[in-house]
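Human: I would love a firmer grasp of how sequence relates to backbone shape in proteins. Could you go through the record with me and say what the backbone is doing? Here is the record:
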Amino acid sequence: MSPRQRILVAGSANLDFVVRAGTIPTPGETVLGRDFQTFPGGKGANQAVASARAGGAATSMLVALGEDDYAERLEASLRAAGVELTIRRQRGVPTGSAFICVSDDGENAITVAPGANACLLGSDLPALDDIGLLLLQLETPLPAIEAWARRARAAGVRVALNAAPAHALPQRLLALIDLLVVNESELAALTGIGDDIGAALARLPVPMVVVTLGALGCCARIDGVLHPCPGFAVEAVDTTAAGDTFCGVLVAALAGGADPEPALARACAASALTCTGDGAQSSIPARDEVEAFLAAAPAVDAGRVAALRAHCGLA
């Protein structure tokens, strides 16, 4: 492995408080839940775990944690996955947490209390001497994210951004990004285009933009050309961390030298597998699980391909 293959994730870590219920409550509604569990989570931490488990590139993470029991669980989960840590410890500030309701059909609604994540600064980024790719999300302060991206660009490090949660972004930040990953709602929020995926992707001034499309798969615009990638059919139990898994596995594959299309297919497979388990980091698959899934997966039928192409305006 060359020194510049290493991945650095700078982002959030949360302890997830998860309740299962028949349906996700609508505004003003109370629903009676069933099972309650806690899981290590947070977009940054989930993506770091996914990248580390994917193999192909060593993964490290810049993370802010409090001095509480939540922090101990999150740190243990990250280290167990093989993520090397740079921790900014915050006194008197709680570790981040998230409150998640998961419905019987596997969908979820999430509210995040940032806690220590909101304390990260642009100056906190560690040395980039051995880093080939920096992966960012939007659960940490935007000024810090922009500072990290600017420093990485100056150092010749590729920058990937998962623009989640949805947030308006300045053009000066987008100009620093090499790979942008969004879901459909985030794509619409960034571009103001909600009914034409191709037009929305074309509006973003980033060399590679990927929109994830749930069970349909994803569609990438790479150097101006659209590349739809079909998803994999699974019986979803919990979609928490599916998008984070996609991001972590995608950057790991790209950092390891994979071409974009097989990297996208691997990310779709890992994301689908994540939906078959409970929780965030607890459901992220290891490399050998993804390999076995891909080897056993039937060929994607023409109907699924046609549905994806139609959704992307390519039919």
Remarks:
- The chain is about 35% helix and 25% strand.
